[in-house]
Amino acid sequence: MEKDDFDFEAVYNELAQKHSLPEFQKIAEDFDIEKIQDKESMFLVREIRRTINEKIAAYLHLFETLINPSSPPMFVFSIIRNMSETDKETIKKIYKALSRTQIEIMKLDTIYNEKEEAKFINEAFIIWQEFKPTIMKLIENLETNFETDDISKKRSYFG
What we know:
about 70% helix
C-alpha cells in the first residue's frame, strides 16, 4: 500500500473494533494520535501507545517538578510557595497513577504484544478521562497561584 493510499483513521477504526479501543475522534483530541499518520509502521498500536506516553510523560515530569523541585524554572517556586495542601495531595495522587503507567510502558517496550498494547491504550484513556477535569482544575489553581504571587515585592538578587 502506498503512503498516499494509507487511511490512518480507517486502519485505527479496524483496530478499535478488534480491541474495543476508544473512538478515534476522542483519542485524537486527548492524545494527538493523528500526528503519527505519516509514520510507516507495521505496529500501529505500539505507535499509538507511544504517542499517549508522550503526553503522560510530560504531565508526569510537571508533577514531579512540583513535588520535588530540583533546579526548576524560577516561576515554579512561586507556584509551589502558594500551592494549597489539597493541591499538593492531588498532585501526588495523579503522579502515582501516571507513574504506574510508566512501569506498564516499560513492560510493553520489552516484549511486543498487540493485545497488551491495546489494553494499555484503553486503560490509559480511562485514566486520562478520570484525571482530566482534576488536572484542568489543578492547572487553573497553579495559574491563580502564579498570578497572585508578587515576585517584584520579594527580595531577590536583582532587587
